[in-house]
Write a structure and sequence with these properties.
Helix Hairpins; 6-stranded antiparallel barrel; Elongation Factor Tu (Ef-tu), domain 3
Length: 340
């Protein structure tokens, strides 16, 4: 390529300089856009007025909409996390409110004293019983036979005693006139004593047999209600082992007095200081929260449960009625008062 052609292709120096007008124009447009943005973004008092007016409009619309709703429609209340505090009938001013279970103060399970067979049972679950009422009969045929046998032996022993007494009286009379010897008199006197001891022995055996015959008749020891019927006729039953678990045929029936009820509570150790013996309480069954009963702290366990960290408390219910059912839950309010 020739130098002339290279010189023709070279860019002049004055053409390499960029025009400063276009650069200033770009900066001016950017500044203008920024100013407009700040103008609309900057908060002003008029905006607050407009926003407050909008909120008032929305509030008025909400009230109008609420007024148009029927009066019978109500919003559901939020459930309380503590059912005992949210339930009706809670006594105001109580120191503590806890839940427990209604129990009978005494539950009695009637068990036979010996192995036997049930011949008759006269009650069922839920029946009322009175003190001394016959509820179960056991088979007593074997003991009746022994009773007759022992009664016969006793009659024979009593006859032997009577004969010995007659002989002794004769010998004693003859000994006074020296017809019988003193030795015969002593022998007859000892025969009378031996016959008398034999009579006492047999009388004891007969009393033992009569006791077993009486044990064949099972009576209720209290006025109460049958909680469970545990046997049926012709079923073999055995005595309950001390300290062992109750088998299917070691108890006959379970009875309790439903007029003597308590509420059993496992009290958290953090609340033990708030409860004391004879403290007044209000009891309300969960099934009937509108019913409230007077009560008082009757028992306080001498030992706590380490596993659960609780102390067992029993609240005696005054004047219970048919609305209180054992093993259902109840709410107890412990009332303030002077500790005795």
């Amino acid at each position: 390529m020739t130098p002339d052609k290279l010189q023709s292709l070279r860019i002049p120096a004055e053409s390499k300089v960029r025009s400063q007008k276009s650069v200033w124009l770009i900066f001016l447009l950017i500044a203008l856009a920024t100013g407009v943005t700040l103008f609309f973004a900057w908060p002003r008092e008029a905006d607050k007025v407009r926003l407050s007016g909008k909120k008032r409009s929305e509030t008025a619309a909400t009230k109008t909409e609420t007024a148009r709703k029927p009066a019978t429609v109500a919003e559901p209340a939020s459930s309380s996390p503590n059912p005992a505090q949210a339930s009706p009938g809670k006594t105001e001013g109580s120191l503590l409110t806890v839940s427990g279970y209604i129990i009978t103060r005494e539950r009695i399970e009637l068990s036979p004293r010996f192995m036997g067979t049930v011949t008759w049972i006269g009650v069922k679950k839920g029946d009322s019983v009175t003190n001394g009422q016959v509820v179960v009969l056991l088979d007593d045929s074997e003991y009746r036979a022994r009773q007759h046998e022992t009664a016969g032996r006793l009659a024979a022993a009593q006859a032997t005693l009577e004969k010995a007494k007659l002989q002794y009286e004769r010998v004693k009379t003859l000994a006074t006139i020296s017809i019988e010897s003193k030795q015969n008199e002593d022998d007859m006197r000892l025969n009378v004593a031996a016959a008398a001891s034999s009579v006492k022995e047999i009388e004891g055996s007969l009393q033992w047999i009569n006791t077993y015959v009486d044990w064949c008749t099972i009576r209720s020891p209290i006025n109460g209600v049958v909680l469970e019927k545990l046997v049926d006729p012709n079923e073999l039953v055995t005595p309950q082992s001390f300290g062992g678990t109750r088998g299917p045929s070691t108890a006959l029936i379970a009875v309790a007095d439903l007029k003597d009820l308590q509420v059993e509570i496992d009290l958290n150790e953090a609340d033990v200081a708030k409860v004391y013996l004879s403290q007044k309480c209000k009891v309300s069954p969960e099934a009937y929260p509108d019913r409230v009963y007077d009560g008082y702290v009757a028992e306080k366990a001498p030992e706590a449960s380490r596993q659960k960290g609780t102390l067992q408390i029993k609240v005696q219910i005054k004047n219970p009625d048919d609305f209180l059912t054992p093993e259902l839950s109840a709410k107890v309010d412990f009332l303030p008062g002077e500790k005795k």
